[in-house]
Design the sequence.
């Protein structure tokens, strides 16, 4: 089975991107625009976690009804105890660049420190994993101001190109991964948490950065349209098409076909009867087969009143998708979580909202069929409940938690009996 999934990854890398290249960025959704930073190379698409995307504008609009233009505007509203400002730090999905929102209330000092205001960022994506990850930010920026401010952190303007300003460490663009704790500044999303100075390509609409010069170059070339990107591939376009039915898409995490083999019962099932439990589990999986998929996406979506957590599985064959949908329903209802004993997966997800039967959404334009598992819950209020703010996107968080804890038996690929 793993051999089949590896073949799927090779196919994913080799997919012809001609269909998507016909349309420019102006016609692309924010999600596809962010996916333009994901280069079509095995070093990225061969990872279990391909990319993690956040739409900060959608998150704040869906939760609070307000998008603050600057941190100063947010702070003024917060100081006036406006409920939409109080809820803003709780609005974001559990996705996107991992270091950017570690301390929301420190962001007030970011404009002075690096010439970048968090509220200038509409969307962001983190591609791959350390030490070769790349981060891309999309919004309205002032690259000249950034270059000037970053000098105090050991950066220098390397060159001016048609794509933007190339800003690198004074030690050179290939020195981005070098740590200098004396230069540590957690306000810099360009490696500042560990005193690193990643190369940065900044234009008025896009900022790309990352510690690996090779990965950085691949991503900037993809953004510029000089090489294929994930935005050009049919499985990613199929996910975007399904999510386009929602007014807001605050976050998406993309997983490769390897996610279907990440589940290993021996890692979590132990004890004297472990083998018997594993055998019974494998029997359940084979009785409810799920064939190999091209791509998995874990997403947060919303409208004016409801937040949705979704797991999406992309197939080329409609019959395989229909079989997977039926099997997912059966597994979620019957199988117990391996890290939350005595609770089924359906029980865990239903605790975060209303769990709907899996459905198949066909996307004829790219000849794909997407299995959708969906959990809906009312959008939390902007006011405190029992003295506490309620975090948004709790259903997506539950799905992400299952992936991070390898509690993914419910979508493990199995061939059937």
Sequence:
């Amino acid at each position: 089975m793993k051999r089949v999934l590896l073949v799927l990854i090779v196919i994913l890398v080799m997919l012809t991107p001609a269909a998507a290249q016909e349309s420019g960025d102006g016609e692309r959704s924010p999600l596809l625009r962010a996916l333009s930073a994901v280069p079509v190379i095995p070093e990225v698409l061969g990872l279990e976690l391909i990319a993690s995307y956040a739409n900060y504008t959608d998150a704040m609009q869906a939760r609070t009804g307000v998008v603050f233009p600057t941190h100063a505007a947010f702070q003024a509203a917060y100081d006036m105890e406006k409920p939409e400002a109080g809820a803003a730090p709780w609005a974001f999905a559990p996705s996107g660049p991992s270091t950017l929102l570690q301390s929301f209330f420190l962001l007030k000092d970011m404009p002075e420190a690096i010439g970048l205001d968090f509220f200038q960022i509409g969307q962001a994506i983190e591609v791959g994993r350390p030490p070769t990850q790349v981060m891309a930010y999309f919004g309205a920026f002032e690259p000249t101001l950034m270059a000037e401010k970053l000098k105090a952190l050991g950066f220098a303007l390397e060159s001016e190109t048609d794509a933007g300003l190339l800003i690198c460490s004074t030690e050179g663009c290939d020195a981005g991964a070098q740590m200098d704790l004396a230069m540590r500044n957690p306000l810099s999303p360009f490696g500042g948490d560990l005193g690193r100075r990643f190369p940065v390509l900044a234009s008025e609409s896009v900022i790309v950065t990352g510690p690996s010069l090779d990965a950085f170059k691949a991503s900037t070339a993809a953004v510029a349209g000089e090489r294929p990107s994930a935005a050009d591939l049919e499985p990613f376009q199929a996910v975007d098409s399904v999510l386009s039915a929602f007014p807001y898409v605050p976050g998406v995490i993309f997983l490769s076909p390897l996610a279907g083999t990440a589940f290993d019962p021996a890692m979590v099932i132990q004890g004297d009867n472990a083998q018997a439990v594993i055998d019974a589990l494998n029997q359940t999986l084979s009785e409810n087969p799920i064939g190999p998929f091209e791509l998995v996406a874990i997403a947060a979506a919303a409208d004016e009143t409801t937040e949705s957590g979704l797991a999406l599985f992309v197939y080329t064959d409609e019959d395989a998708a229909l079989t997977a949908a039926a099997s997912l329903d059966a597994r979620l209802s019957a199988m117990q979580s391996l890290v939350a004993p005595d609770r089924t997966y359906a029980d865990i997800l239903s605790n975060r909202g209303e769990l709907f039967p899996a459905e198949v959404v066909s996307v004829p334009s790219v000849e794909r069929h997407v299995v959708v598992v969906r959990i809906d819950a009312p959008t939390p209020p902007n006011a405190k409940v029992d003295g506490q703010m309620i975090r948004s996107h709790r259903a997506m968080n539950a799905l992400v938690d299952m992936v991070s804890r390898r509690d993914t038996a419910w979508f493990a690929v199995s061939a059937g009996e």
